[in-house]
Amino acid sequence: MPSFNYKALAAKGGVQSGLIDAGDRSEALRLLERRGLQPVSLQQVSADSAARTKEKAAKKKVAPKAKPTVQAKSDSADSSGQLKLKRPEVVLFTEELSDMLSAGLQLEPALKAMENRQELGGLKEVAQRIRNEVRDGTNFSVALKRVSPSFGPLYCSLAAAGEASGALDTILKRQAHYLKTLAELQSRLILAMIYPAFLVCAGIGVSVVFVTVLIPQLTQLIESAPGGKLPLPIQVLVNVSDHLGAYWYVYLILLVAGGLFFKAWKDNEENRPTWDRVKLTLPLAGPVISSRFFVQFLETMANLVGNGLPLLRALELARDATLNLSLRGALNEVIDQVGDGRALSKAMVRTGKFPALLIDMVSVGEQTGKIDLSMRRAAERYDKELNKDLNRIMALIMPTILIIMALMIGTMAYLMINAIFQTIGNLSGRH
């Protein structure tokens, strides 16, 4: 009976490979479907190759299980034994592994090579633990989740997609690029906020001096003058200052309590869809979140479809890699409609979540039969738009803060100078 070498997706999302005996290719597909496996590749092998594969599998079953070695707990490990990594370490691990996989190494030898590299430092233990998990039959994405919480759900979902499509090196390289872009953005944001933060602190200090020193002195000067009367704006400012001075701790408690309540509400699983929906409508952050989703979705789909994965399964993996629940709901609608036989571009139109330009490029890919290339070009285009949006936001931060501080301090200075001139005018009128 012919034998077929298969690679398939399990119901839980893992990747399985092995040998199956069947009368023909159709029967092999039916047998895999009964086992709950979705084939990614299925190739008939010769009788000699099948015999050697079965012999190796039999030896592996009877081989004595090696006694696990006890490792000393790392300083960076948490109470559960998982290793915590900094973002630069995650980027370095991802880049090194993707380079080795691109050079032709298999996953386990690549991890073994990382263990032997002295310059990787603490990442050697991470590579060793992941390699031990992979050697015992655990999927790479699951091993990442078990070894370190620093990889995160998005990283693990993309790794699972790379395993399923056979493009793990490409997806890891793009993930490293994404992490470096995110780190660069945070670094630029911190640098850009240093001067505005200094201006805010200086403005708050000046305001405190105005309210606690200058305005009380001006008030005494005006009230001591014959017929002196505080102007209405100054009187309002004095009353507000006295009120805040007497009840500042109440407002501080309310502010802290409000922050804690908002965090608890936001972290509640029942409220996550609402909060994710609100984030997409925020004035500056909303377009950035949407653009980042489009870039990630298009890149992931291009890699998966380009490596031969069925469109429906590629959409499911792209959905699993989406953290925003509102956008994930839109992908669920697309998956349902594509499963019913509707074209991808038509399904995206019906959700109302995707821009017209993106849908047009996907439609062109469907018509030409090169949907992966169309999605990759669309991803590059939206990546450029995302960089423009980020640069625009960074450019708006400085003038916005300057205008706010100028209005706040300028208003108080104007009120004080106006009160002084009004008092001088009253005195001159009496004389």
Automatic annotation (TrEMBL):
Region annotated Disordered, chain positions: 42-81
Keywords, sorted A to Z: Cell inner membrane, Cell membrane, Membrane, Transmembrane, Transmembrane helix
Keyword Protease on entry: no
Domain Type II secretion system protein GspF: 93-216, 297-417
A cellular-component GO term for this protein: plasma membrane
Gene3D superfamilies, sorted: Type II secretion system (T2SS), domain F
Cell inner membrane in keyword set: yes
Cell compartment(s), UniProt: Cell inner membrane
Gene Ontology biological process: protein secretion by the type II secretion system
Residues annotated as transmembrane: 189-215, 246-265, 393-417
Principal location listed in the UniProt entry: membrane
Topology relative to the membrane: Multi-pass membrane protein
Coiled coil regions in record: none
Database matches in InterPro entries: GspF/PilC, T2SS_GspF_dom, T2SS_GspF_sf
Family that this chain belongs to: Belongs to the GSP F family.
Protein name as it appears in the record: Type II secretory pathway component PulF
